[in-house]
Design a protein that fits this description.
Layout: E1 6-10, H1 20-29, E2 33-35, H2 44-50, E3 54-58, H3 68-88, E4 92-95, H4 115-135, E5 139-142, H5 157-167, E6 172-177, H6 178-184, H7 188-195, E7 199-204, H8 220-229, E8 235-238, H9 246-256
Parallel strand pairs: 1-2, 1-8, 2-3, 3-4, 4-5, 5-6, 6-7, 7-8
Helix pairs in contact: 3-4, 4-5
Length: 259
């Protein structure tokens, strides 16, 4: 058996004592694409030289979807990040409902999302798509669980699906993070089915602990079989820590998605 998916892994979360370019090179050697978080701390020239395939990267450094000042900030930041993404050949640039600070905590927390905020978020995402179309890049919107990211607006799988399907433009896809879906909603296979027409990438980690498949409660082999059956053959990214050896964690990930 072989994997029908394009497998990748988040470089920031593995071999954390090694330089980022070493991690990218090692992932390339092991046959994985490379996911990145924020780019300003990285030496872009060294990353370019690795020849790695960069699958996803945070698509902004600051900003918010649902208010005027935050939206302008987000557009400016996303436009700058798009240039970095093009330089590295990053396939998808990732967004959230609001900017995240230390530990993934939203910088501006929102407890109640109004109808006006929904309309503003959709307008902001359309502006992102207009820019992305001109630049020739693709953005994704990621779901986040509220236990780890309290006060993050538009964080649930249902909210992300509602926004992306409402915008319904090829420049905006869903980054369906099944670790977050498991904590927030569960019912992973049916969420995959609902999101399928708009999925740009699926991200995975087991729960609890956010480690590799096989260390927690999620039956990722079953999820992989379901994704294959529904015709998904796109990228699957491991966004997890390794409970022990990083290469063993990557092996467990590859085994779970070899169906």
């Amino acid at each position: 058996m072989t994997t029908p998916f394009q497998l990748a892994a988040c470089a920031e979360m593995l071999w954390r004592d090694k330089p980022i370019e070493w991690r990218a090179s090692r992932l390339k050697d092991l046959g994985f694409g490379v996911g990145l978080w924020n780019w300003p701390t990285h030496d872009l020239a060294k990353l370019e030289k690795t020849g790695a395939t960069f699958t996803i990267m945070n698509g902004y450094l600051e900003g918010r979807l649902a208010d005027d000042a935050g939206a302008d900030m987000l557009l400016k930041s996303a436009r700058e990040t798009a240039q970095v993404g093009k330089r590295l050949g990053v396939a998808r640039l990732n967004l959230h409902g609001t900017g995240l600070g230390d530990g993934g905590i939203p910088i501006v927390q929102t407890q109640v999302v109004s109808g006006a905020m929904w309309l503003k978020a959709r307008d902001t995402l359309n502006r992102i798509c207009d820019m992305a179309e001109k630049e020739g890049v693709t953005f994704t919107l990621e779901n986040l669980n509220l236990l780890d990211h309290p006060g993050c607006p538009f964080g649930s799988t249902a909210e992300v699906l509602a926004l992306v399907s409402s915008v319904n433009r090829p420049q905006l896809r869903i980054n369906l993070d099944l670790y977050h879906t498991q904590i927030g909603e569960g019912d992973l296979v049916r969420w995959c089915e609902k999101c399928l027409p708009w999925i740009g990438e699926v991200q995975v980690a087991d729960n609890p602990g956010r480690f590799e498949p096989g260390t927690g409660e999620i039956n990722y082999r079953g999820v992989a079989q379901a994704l294959k059956k529904m015709g998904y053959c796109g990228p699957v990214g491991l966004e997890s820590f390794a409970i022990g050896d990083a290469e063993k964690a990557l092996g467990a990930f590859r085994d779970a998605f070899t169906v």
